[in-house]
């Protein structure tokens, strides 16, 4: 089960877990979202669990909950690059939408 897998790396917005034959990059911001499909993520070309979120207009958008990187094709440093890019994107978004109140 995914919850029992050892965590290799973690950030504010991600976990990288150690599966038997794959590294699993999990987006913490999507925890609790129901998996609606598992298919290939077009951006990273790896298998991904996807869910649906709806915007304020009720329009649904597919989002990736976690990615599965085959250990035959990727090493931990390559997965970490993707995780750090996601971390940077979410940090910038948080700073843009929730700037610190300096009083």
Shape: globular
Which whole number gives the mean pLDDT?
93
Rg is: 15 Å
Number of helices: 1
The tally of domains stands at 1
Structure class: alpha+beta
Run of helices and strands: EEEEEEH
Distance between the termini: 46 Å
Give unreliable regions as ranges: none
Helix-residue proportion: 10-25%
Side by side, the strands of the main sheet go 1-2-3-6-5-4
Largest sheet: 6 strands, antiparallel
What portion of residues belong to β-strands?
35-45%
The number of distinct β-strands equals 6
Question: How would you characterize this protein structure?
Answer:
The structure is a single chain. This protein is α+β, with helices and mostly antiparallel strands and 103 residues long. It has one domain (7-97). Helices cover 21% and strands 39% of the residues. A six-stranded antiparallel sheet has the order 1-2-3-6-5-4, covered by helices on one side. The longest helix has 22 residues, at 76-97. The radius of gyration is 15 Å and the shape is globular. It starts with 6 loop residues before the first strand and ends in a 6-residue tail after the last helix.
């Amino acid at each position: 089960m995914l919850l029992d897998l050892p965590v290799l790396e973690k950030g504010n917005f991600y976990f990288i877990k150690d599966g038997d034959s794959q590294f699993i990059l999990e987006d913490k911001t999507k925890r609790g979202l129901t998996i609606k499909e598992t298919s290939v993520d077009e951006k990273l070309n790896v298998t991904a669990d996807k869910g649906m979120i709806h915007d304020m207009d009720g329009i649904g958008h597919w989002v990736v909950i976690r990615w599965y990187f085959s250990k035959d094709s990727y090493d931990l440093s390559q997965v970490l690059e993707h995780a750090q890019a996601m971390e940077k994107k979410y940090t910038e978004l948080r700073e843009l939408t929730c700037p610190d109140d300096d009083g």
